[in-house]
Amino acid sequence: MPDIPEPGPSPAPIPWPTDPIRTERLVLREAGAGDRGRFVELFASPEVGVYVGGARPRGELERAMPAVPGQRPGLFVVDLDGVMIGMVTLDRQDAEHPGGGKAGLGYLFLPEAWGYGYAAEACAAALGWFAGVLPGEPVVLSTRTANERALRLAAKLGFTEVERFEAYRTEQWSGVWSPVTASG
Q1: What single-letter DSSP state applies at residue 67?
Q2: Residue (of 103, 131, 128) closest to 12 by Cα position
Q3: Could you tell me what percent of the chain has a pLDDT over 90?
């Protein structure tokens, strides 16, 4: 009988900042009760839903969404002038997901915030913060290959393609970002 290798150490949990992260134009912060309506808009948006499995019915969201949605480690509300315009997530990926066990970057922005560079600014800030608290740890990102804007943003942020695979009945792209290679 062959030896079964012992599993490696579990990845470190992702700590969470005690203070908001500020950029030139944005604040990445915890969710609050005042963000509930914007979360409903985000998940009900047909434009946003195109690349994330579809928009959810507004009435269903209004009934099911907690009073303070998104209040958990791993989720930053992206705030512009006191108003939520999107969200950025950094979560450990499930074992069956490409890059399983690694931190995964995700983001969603309201259509009104598209085209101004806010996603790039917010994701770069989140990645910079992450590199400071877990130096050298890579981050993965997956998106549909049909989402050209997301692919351009991944390249701009320094993600490099690792693989393409089929999921959700469409081709997906998976890339990795490493603070060692991203910074130089």
Answers
A1: S
A2: 103
A3: 67
